[in-house]
Amino acid sequence: MFDFTPWSLLGSLLFGTIGMAALAYGKRVGSIGPLAGGAALLVFPYFVSSTWALFAIGAVLTGLTVRYRE
To answer: CB atoms < 10 A from the CB of 53, how many?
Structure first.
């Protein structure tokens, strides 16, 4: 079901760390954009089984989180 390659584990760790930082930032400043983006970045690796999709979705979510940080 899930592809446990080194790249998929690295991607999950990378986007989980970014998500945790964005969630903490959004909670500290009281902004819903980073809060929602951080939560999405923390959760989505559990539902994506393909490595290329993991990096594609993670890059899009990270970009949206940075874009809507106000």
So the answer is: 14
> What digits encode the pLDDT tens for the residues 11-68?
999 999 999 999 999 999 999 999 999 999 999 999 998 999 999 999 999 999 999 8
Q: Which amino acid is at 15?
A: F
Q: How far apart are CA 20 and CA 58, in angstroms?
A: 13
Closest to 20 in 3D by CA, of 45, 38, 43: 38
> What are the extents of the domains in the chain?
6-67
11 close to 55: Cβ distance less than 8 angstroms: yes
Residue among 64, 5, 10 nearest 39 (CA): 64
Identify the residue whose tokens are 């592809």.
3
The amino acid that residue 36 corresponds to is A
